[in-house]
Amino acid sequence: MFRLRSISVLSSARIFAIVQGAIGIVVGFIFLIFAVVGAAIVPAQQKLGTAGLIVAAVLMPVIYGVLGFVMGALWAFVYNMAAQAVGGLELQLDAVPSRSFAPPSVVASPPPAGGY
Description:
single chain; mainly alpha; two-stranded antiparallel ribbon; 2 helices; 62% helix
């Protein structure tokens, strides 16, 4: 049994920022699709809404990344405070044998019966 007593605030913040930034790319792409479809549906209308969606699509990964960094740091800080009070998460880990990438051993075959 292992116990997780503390999480590095900066490490957690970086991981959250990367994950949320990746999600922001996906959400930004969806916003971009809406902008293109909207522009195609009503070509004679003002393009302010379309431009707004394009700007939002470009900024989405940055906004998600920054918010992910802040929330990751906050999460780690709150976890560390709770872990001090109650002792942290108890983890049960199993050892996994590592795979060997050595070539298989060559076994000599017995000579044929009856000989030459």
